[in-house]
Amino acid sequence: MRGSIGRTPSATPLYEQVKQRVMHFILDGTWSEGHILPAETELARQFGVSYGTARQALQILTKQGVLLRKPRIGTVVTGRTPHHTLDRFYKYYRLHNTKNELINTQTITKSIEIRPATDVEKRQLSLDETSNVISLVRIRLHNNSPVMIDHIAIPEHLIPNFPSTPDSVPALLLNNLRDEYGLRISAVRETLRADIASAEDMDLLNLSVRDNPTAVLVIDDICFDSKNQALLTASHRALSDNYHYINEIR
Description:
By secondary structure, this protein is α+β, with helices and mostly antiparallel strands. The chain has 7 helices and 10 strands. This is GntR family transcriptional regulator. Residues 12-80 form the HTH gntR-type domain.
């Protein structure tokens, strides 16, 4: 299969190289939707890796929805690319430009505080009357320009000793919650709506007064763990002129 992975020196883990090779075959049409992959033992032999390595790569792609295991048939290409999975959710937000390209943003935390949970947060996060949340306001930049504001609330008791200053908050917040606190997101419930830009939106998104009224896209999230316990809420307010949000259903 165009060279043995196992014989090619690389700092990238072998299972990741197998993933990349499989994705390459899928994206270039070699393995189209409905194609049945070789058995894992045969795939391992062709790629020059161990059975366990090949199996690990296919398990990840199956979890991402790229592949589907069918009893008595084998592993099948679904035709879905992993742009809209929780794995991507950890790394990107699903904001696209007018060319339908998924944009990569840089994140700056503007403020962080501990405050009493609002009534809405108490209901969404199943908190009692005296509970506090850690509240963050973040800005997402694309090409050094602000495109989205994040308002995030996390129950204080879930993240003891969380950084207390904006500069010390990790840019990859969800990864930090997973790696440092064991808070792994398994599901996300989203609500989308349109709104008129507020004074805060105008300021943080660098909107001009002459642009007012300006429409913004609002995406409200509740993130859950595998036991359906709400871990955090987030409200994202994004520019809507040159950017849009894509949600794929298959």
